[in-house]
Amino acid sequence: MASIFKIPSSSIVHSSTGSRSNRSSDQHRFLVDLRTKTAFDVKRSSSKLSLRTAYSPGVSLVVRCSQSDGNGSTLKRTTLHDLYEKQGQSPWYDNLCRPVTDLIPLIESGVRGVTSNPAIFQKAISTSNAYNDQFRELVQTGKDIESAYWELVVKDIQDACKLFESIYDQTDGGDGYVSVEVSPRLADDTEGTIEAAKLLHKKVDRKNVYIKIPATAPCVPSIKEVIANGISVNVTLIFSLARYEAVIDAYLDGLEASGLSDLSRVTSVASFFVSRVDTLVDKMLEKIGTPEALDIRGKAAIAQAALAYQVYQKKFSGPRWDALVKKGAKKQRLLWASTSVKNPAYPDTLYVAPLIGPDTVSTMPDQALQAFIDHGSVARTIDSNVSEAEGVYSALEKLGIDWKFVGQQLEAEGVESFMKSFDSLLDSLQEKANSLKLVSL
């Protein structure tokens, strides 16, 4: 359940040792924290939202998954509202678990969409009992394990889409999306990805669903074809400028090939991954070991992201784009993904605060979301110092950092990670089914 309650600010433990903004002692801080503590054999008491309040001077509002009953409560205005209203960036939540009603406090706090992936569902399904009843029914009716998995996922996506539907309607399809990814086993299968995307879109059957397709070389043509079929897409696992440009071209090609007179309902986001870039490049810089190399650690990801925004502005302008706009086309927004800080020495808003700009999305897992609501600053930063970003990018090349290699390596790691999560979850579900003596492979 979602339990809303207040705790003294002094009791908050921050996730990193990075610097933070100074705030007046009497100013409230807001945190949002969704956690699932149940296991398969633990039974939830209710799906309702609960409210517990302990008033004290200087408090923080925290939303947690709990097992207590009660009524929902409207959260106060947060920096997420300012992020969207003042700077045109949509804050999304990078997580999904049951009960989906736990998203309600997040929506009230300013969250405008949800992203999911195989790793998120692996954690949600394997650590919660909330899926037990549906899973049991599915296997009893003869569903194989993978088919049962997709039924569980589709229900979560449909329920989440319902919660965000009003945002979708209010923005005329500009926001309020929930993303679900095709099987990671299809990352090198062009045609398989196209068919899976069509089937998943039909299965979910919600106007505000994004079908996630990885930006692997074999799947770039899939993106064009799926867009051409009028299906909105979240392109994921983008790690390089070259691949990002190819993704934009696939979107534009798909719009042009669609034959639709009204393109306003076919939209897309391009998920450009951030923190993982620094994780890899920092290791390479430490191996180089020179003062120049060590001094530039923690700067690669933001520099490349800033340059990606320049590519975005260039590609979505000019005669070609203007012709599509006349048919109602909407820009494929840049979505900053992998925004949680992996190195505790870095500020905990490092991959959010420097990437604020109009017509973008920042999808944040718990850690990053908590940090930004608590002490994030709202200002346009994505193009505030493009020359510095260009300098960092070039300096890294001079030090021997091969950006093409970085992109390829991170893409391979991303695909492998999602495949492991996917396979691990199927194994867990098989074990669960076996324990119930319901089904076998």
UniProtKB/TrEMBL annotation:
<dbReference type="InterPro" id="IPR001585">
    <property type="entry name" value="TAL/FSA"/>
</dbReference>
<dbReference type="GO" id="GO:0005737">
    <property type="term" value="C:cytoplasm"/>
</dbReference>
<comment type="function">
    <text>Transaldolase is important for the balance of metabolites in the pentose-phosphate pathway.</text>
</comment>
<feature type="region of interest" description="Disordered">
    <location>
        <begin position="1"/>
        <end position="27"/>
    </location>
</feature>
<dbReference type="GO" id="GO:0004801">
    <property type="term" value="F:transaldolase activity"/>
</dbReference>
<protein>
    <submittedName>
        <fullName>Transaldolase</fullName>
    </submittedName>
</protein>
<comment type="pathway">
    <text>Carbohydrate degradation; pentose phosphate pathway.</text>
</comment>
<keyword id="KW-0704">Schiff base</keyword>
<dbReference type="InterPro" id="IPR018225">
    <property type="entry name" value="Transaldolase_AS"/>
</dbReference>
<dbReference type="GO" id="GO:0006098">
    <property type="term" value="P:pentose-phosphate shunt"/>
</dbReference>
<dbReference type="GO" id="GO:0005975">
    <property type="term" value="P:carbohydrate metabolic process"/>
</dbReference>
<keyword id="KW-0570">Pentose shunt</keyword>
<dbReference type="InterPro" id="IPR013785">
    <property type="entry name" value="Aldolase_TIM"/>
</dbReference>
<keyword id="KW-0963">Cytoplasm</keyword>
<keyword id="KW-0808">Transferase</keyword>
<comment type="similarity">
    <text>Belongs to the transaldolase family. Type 2 subfamily.</text>
</comment>
<dbReference type="Pfam" id="PF00923">
    <property type="entry name" value="TAL_FSA"/>
</dbReference>
<dbReference type="InterPro" id="IPR004732">
    <property type="entry name" value="Transaldolase_2"/>
</dbReference>
